[in-house]
Each structure stands twice: as C-alpha cells, then as structure tokens.
Amino acid sequence: MAKLLVKNIGVLQTPVGSYAHKGSEQGENLKLYNAAVLAEDGLIKAITADGQLPCSEEEVDTVIDAEGNLVTPGLVEGHTHLVFGGYRQNEIPLKLKGAGYLDILRAGGGIMDTVRKTREATFEELYDKTEGFLDEMMGLGVTTCEAKSGYGIDLETEVKLLEVLKKLNEDHPMDIVSTFMPAHVVLPEYKGKEEEFIQLCIDEMMPYVKEKGLAEFIDIFTEDSVFDKEQSRVYLEAAREMGYGLKIHADEIEAIGGSVLAGEMKATSAEHLIVIDDEGMASLAKGGTVAMLLPATSFYLGATFAPARRMIDEFGVPVAMASDFNPGSCPSLNLQFTMNLGYLKYRMTPEEILTAVTINPAAGIGREKTVGTLEVGKQADMVIWNAPNMEMLCYRFGSNLALQTIKKGELV
Ligand code: IZC
Ligand code: ZN
Predict the structure, then answer these.
(1) Which of 3, 237, 356, 399 could disulfide-link to 60, CB 3.0 to 4.6 Å?
(2) Residue 300 and residue 253: Cα distance in Å, rounded?
C-alpha cells in the first residue's frame, strides 16, 4: 500500500474527463490552487485545494513538496519511431543544398538508410539505445508513450523491434503502446508492385503480430512515392478486421487523400496533417479521429505548420501534439519544445496545449481511461514543473523545465 503525497502545489492544472476534447472544450482546464495529491498503489486517491491536505503527512511513505510550482498530468507522447539503428546526420548537408525529404527517400536514403542500419543492429543494441531514449523522455516529463516499428519492413526485423518494445514495457517505468508499421517505405523489390507488398502485410505479417500480441495499432505512410490512398484503404480494412486500432500518416508532404481516408475509416488518430485541406478536416471531425500534430517535424523539415486553429475553431477536430521522434525528420524527443511550437506556430492557448499533450494523445493511443488527466482513480502520473503556470512552460524554450516526474505514484 505505497502512499505518496505531493503537497504545496501552486497550481494543479489538468483537463477533466476521459475522452478526446474538441472545439472550445480543448481549452478548458481545471485549475486548483494551493493543491495536494495523494497517490496510493499507483493511483490517484484524493486531490485537495486551498491549502487542505487529503491526509496527514505521517500516514504516507513519501512526501514531496512542490514548492508552489505547477503540477500537470504526466505528458503523453502519442507518436514516435523510437527503435532504430544508426542516425541520419549525413542528410543535413544534402538538405542544406536543397534536397527535400522525399528526394532523399527516392534516392534510396532516408527511411531506407535507417532500415539497413536497423536490420544490422542486434536486439541488445536496440534495447539499450531505446532504453536511453525512454530515460530521457521521462526526465522531460513524459510518462506514457506510443512507439512504432517500421524500420525492419521484413517480418523478422519488425518483430525484433516490437519485441524490444514489449520487453522495455515490462522493464521500464514508461508505459509503452506499440504500433506495427510495416508499410512505412516501399522496398526497391516492391517498387511498382506495392499491392503485392500490401497483400504480404495482410496475409502474413499482420496475423503473426496480432497472434503474438505484439502491437495494438497499425500504421501506414500514405504519401507520394510511398503508399497511395487505395492501397492504404485495403491495408487498413484488413487490419481493422483483425482487431488493430488504426493510425495513418496523412498529408505530411502531399495531400493525396490520407486524412479523408482516416476519417472515413474512423481511424483512432491521423498523423502530421501539415497540408490537410477542408475536406480532410471535415472527414476527421465526422470520423471522430484525433489529429496527432507533429510541429517539431514541420520545424525540422522547414515546412509549413498544420492548421491547428482551424481544426479547433471551425471543424471541432480534437488536436493532440507529439514529437514524431525519428532519426530523419525529427531527431528530438523533447515534447516541451513541441509545446513551445504549439504556442507560437499553431497559436494555441496554454490550456489547449495541455490538453494536446495529455488527454487527447491518450485518446489517440487508447489510454484515455487510465492516463491523461489528474482525477481520482486514474494513474498517479504527474510532473512538477520549474514554472509557476502553463504560460511560463509554453514560453520558455530550450531548457528542460521538468523538475520531477512521478509515474504510478513513484518518483522516477
Ligand atoms: O525515418 O523518416 N515521416 N516517417 C514518415 C518518418 C517521417 C520517419 C523517418
Ligand atoms: Zn511518424
């Protein structure tokens, strides 16, 4: 019966309710001043405000003094390509000479480069590297994260990546939600035969991964020079039949119908959406799909930014923000930087931003019932910030403002 008390919280700020928040509700947060939280056996037992304590300090095993700082739910990282061999720093000189993301991919670099390095890496090498990333993320305030495969493409290597994630989910305090993404790139041998590869995914790979319980979600890169809308539809329909939740990388560089498809298929989330049009936004709203926006990727690609304000104000699409951590288009796993970009580039309010990095990504990865808000009965995942309020957190950038991360009622 481990008990932990966090006292002297200047402001406890959290969205309320275990579902994706859209429209004006995206900007509604509960704010409790001079608050305290009692955690017992990993869950939130009580929350009090105005200087009241939920119990005496003698009754608990650990007391943490928040010293008047801001406390929020632990951040939920909704989109990463976390397990990969090597890095891609060699692409920067090419980028600086004007090569675009898809130019590098079409020339056999980009994702293909990472696939080669990932196939060479051993389980142990990938485990150690990914463990380091998880430690870094927790230090930055993340307590739950999504992670994709997608750098193996062949079944054996994809399974290796998912096994790394499964083991880390058991060994590491981070909660990890795994996504299977064999349709991340078209291998040279399948160029012009994309349908054949999709069929291989459906006939052999998806059933195997499902049977082994290695992934909850399926994802596909619906993009020019990768997979088109119809191939994506066939792939996602089969995955849905097998019981996978659906995710789709849509409208990152070219709008080829990915976001429209995501809404039509009622995907749990649609990723990127940098160049989404009105039809796409209407479709996501209709389908109840969470828009998983990745502003650090826009920053790193030198691209435009997704129309987050219009999604919230005009279309009522629930907006989440994630890092997209990957070795090519976003080699940063700092979700705090994503929040800065949400403020300045998406012009979201601090309240909307908090929703976008807690309950909305939680809904986007199927964890809205257990994490993403500070409410009695939910997991005691929270962050004490070196900031008096959310405004400060969204304004400061380049520093780590997470003072202490608490996961399931324990300091990590
Ligand atoms: O390794 O480039 N967009 N997939 C789709 C990525 C970025 C990851 C990568
Ligand atoms: Zn991605």
Answers:
(1) 3
(2) 13
Looking at the domain 3-74+373-411, which fold is it? Urease, subunit C; domain 1 (2.30.40)
Closest CA to 407 of 383, 388, 391, 387: 383
Contacts of 24 (CB under 8 A, 6+ apart): none
For residue 272, the ligand 1 atom closest to its alpha carbon is 3
State the virtual CA torsion across 154, 159, 161, 165 in degrees, nearest 10. 160
Testing ligand 1's pocket by substitution, the residue of 82, 329, 330 carrying the most ligand atoms inside 8 A of its CB is: 329
Q: Which CATH architecture has domain 76-364?
A: Alpha-Beta Barrel (3.20)
Residue nearest to atom 7 of ligand 1 (CA): 329
Sequence spans of domains, the chain:
3-74+373-411, 76-364
* Nearest-CA residue for atom 2 of ligand 1: 328
Distance CA 25, CA 13 (A): 15
Contact 298, 305 (CB under 8 A): yes
Please state, rounded to an integer, the average pLDDT across all residues of the chain: 98
The pTM of the full predicted model, rounded to 2 decimals, is: 0.98
Distance 395 CA to ligand 2 centre (A): 26
Q: Phi and psi of 149, rounded to 5°?
A: -80, -160
Residue of the CA atom closest to atom 8 of ligand 1: 326
Which ligand number lies closest to the CA of residue 147?
Answer: 2
pLDDT (0 to 100) of residue 1? 67
**Please, which residues have CB within 8 angstroms of residue 92's CB and are 6 or more apart in sequence?**
none
Nearest CA to ligand 1 atom 3: 329
Q: Closest ligand 1 atom, CA of 327? A: 1
Which tokens sit at 390?
């959310």
Residue 208 is inside which H or E element, if any? helix 206-211
What is the per-residue pLDDT across 155-208, written as a single tens digit (0 to 9) for each?
999 999 999 999 999 999 999 999 999 999 999 999 999 999 999 999 999 999
- Tell how far the Cα of 247 is from the centroid of ligand 2, in angstroms: 10
